[in-house]
């Protein structure tokens, strides 16, 4: 993960906790009173205020890798819509115990404070050890994305490595073909260990097309998760039958076919003069991208900076493209985070 992305995460957390921190402290004070004093204070208003502040946190501005850092710190569930679900689940629990609720919420508050402190220290240390431009991405263009090889899409040996290279040559080849560019125009600017992460840099149009494809694939994945949750609910209630299972499978297949058609239509709107040959290449790329996603792989886009209108070389058309790309990336992240929220809420209900 680029140092710049951790620095940006620190700045994002500082900015977004400005409204959340005082409201969280107000709720903690009420919960502390109710756990220690006979006179009970109402929690409804401070809980509503905090819920609104948490829901207003723009987590779609964060990349998947940045969300992963918050998860490692055990605070991803405390911010944004996940945070709203968490706090309401804790405070509105049917078996309401003031002491336990106060302790749980106070621990959440302490974790957020510790995460904010650690990220500030990282930002400060990055500058001290020579990362003078720690807030900038070192790449040919500001249009950067990470390809994350994890779960069944992980690279475990040289054979996997070769297959992965072939898959992504096909995916990038299909996207660049329809954009009127060449695969070699997409630069590899970093490779990291872990589940294996490649950081790539591309042109605006290539990033726009790939973000469009990824957004629709994430939407398809969310629908698949909905189907899986329905299956689980039917199994729990012992209402699942062979006929229902068959119908759900039919709906899944229809959704995949419809989703793929929507992707191709969306790309044709971006590149209306794309040739049938290049659209065919893109279709193969979409199939491979869907398989990569289903295997657990992820594409993680970094938001390109907005252009400065006061700059001498400001280009209005390019600025519009940048805004389009930023909006697409945030839409994609919203779809990805929707899936995390669905899974998280289901896990919370199980607990």
Topology:
Blueprint: H1 3-36, H2 44-55, H3 64-72, H4 80-91, H5 98-128, E1 144-148, H6 158-179, E2 187-192, E3 197-201, H7 204-236, H8 242-270, H9 276-294, E4 298-301, H10 316-350
Antiparallel strand pairs: 1-3, 1-4, 2-3
Helix pairs in contact: 1-2, 1-5, 2-4, 4-10, 6-7, 6-9, 7-8, 7-9, 7-10, 8-9
Verbal overview:
The protein is mostly helical and 351 residues long. The protein is built from 10 helices and 4 strands; from the N terminus they run αααααβαββαααβα. A 4-stranded antiparallel sheet has the order 2-3-1-4, with helices on one face. It starts with a helix and ends with a helix.
The fraction of residues assigned to DSSP E strands is 5-15%
- The run of helices and strands is HHHHHEHEEHHHEH
**Average of pLDDT:** 85
Radius of gyration, in angstroms, nearest whole number: 23 Å
Query: Which descriptor suits the 3D outline?
Result: globular
Count of beta strands: 4
Classification by helices and strands: mainly alpha
Number of helical regions? 10
Helix fraction bin: 55-70%
Strand order of the largest sheet: 2-3-1-4
Note the gap between the termini.
33 Å
Main beta-sheet strand count, sense and barrel state: 4 strands, antiparallel
What are the segments in which pLDDT stays under 50 over at least 5 consecutive residues? none
């Amino acid at each position: 993960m680029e140092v710049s992305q951790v620095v940006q995460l620190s700045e994002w957390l500082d900015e977004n906790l400005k409204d959340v921190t005082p409201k969280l402290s107000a709720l903690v004070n009420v919960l502390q009173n109710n756990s220690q004093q006979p006179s009970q204070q109402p929690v409804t208003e401070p809980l509503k205020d905090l819920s609104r502040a948490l829901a207003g946190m723009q987590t779609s501005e964060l990349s998947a890798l940045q969300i992963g850092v918050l998860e490692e710190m055990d605070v991803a569930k405390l911010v944004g819509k996940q945070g709203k679900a968490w706090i309401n689940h804790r405070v509105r629990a049917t078996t309401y115990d003031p002491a336990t609720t106060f302790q749980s919420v106070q621990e959440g508050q302490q974790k957020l404070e510790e995460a904010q402190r650690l990220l500030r220290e990282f930002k400060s240390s990055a500058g001290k050890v020579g990362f003078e431009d720690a807030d900038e991405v070192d790449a040919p263009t500001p249009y950067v994305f990470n390809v994350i090889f994890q779960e069944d899409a992980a690279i475990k040996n040289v054979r996997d490595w070769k297959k992965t290279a072939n898959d992504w040559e096909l995916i990038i080849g299909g996207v660049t073909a329809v954009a009127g560019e060449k695969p070699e125009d997409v630069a590899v600017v970093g490779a990291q260990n872990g589940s294996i992460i490649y950081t790539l840099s591309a042109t605006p149009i290539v990033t726009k097309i790939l973000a469009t494809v990824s957004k629709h694939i994430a939407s398809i994945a969310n629908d698949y998760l909905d189907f899986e949750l329905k299956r689980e609910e039917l199994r729990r209630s012992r209402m699942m039958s062979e006929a229902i299972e068959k119908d759900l499978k039919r709906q899944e297949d229809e959704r995949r076919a419809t989703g793929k058609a929507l992707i191709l239509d969306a790309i044709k709107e971006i590149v209306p003069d794309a040739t049938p040959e290049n659209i065919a290449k893109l279709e193969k790329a979409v199939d491979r991208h869907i398989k990569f996603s289903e295997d657990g792989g992820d594409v993680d886009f970094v938001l390109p900076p907005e252009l400065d209108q006061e700059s001498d070389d400001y280009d209005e058309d390019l600025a519009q493209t940048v805004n389009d790309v930023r909006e697409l990336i945030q839409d994609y992240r919203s779809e990805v985070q929707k899936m995390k929220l669905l899974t998280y809420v289901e896990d919370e209900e199980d607990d």
